[in-house]
Amino acid sequence: MMDMALLKEGTIIMAIGLGTVFVFLVVMICAMQINSKILSFIGKYFPEEIPEVKTAKKKVASNKDKIAAAIAAAIHNSRKA
Prior knowledge:
Elements: H1 2-45, H2 63-80
């Protein structure tokens, strides 16, 4: 009989714990949805400034630069061996 009482008590404690977590998650989800609606309402009247991105022009390597890089790589590889 003692084991049945402990099992019943454990089940009650487990149900209370799971219920508490469930209620907390429901409250948290509701709070996040309310927060989202408030921020979207505020965002209509106070939009964020979008910074203008400056793109740098890529420098095109000439054939001489490519040949010099290939020679340097070949010399580096031959010195390794």
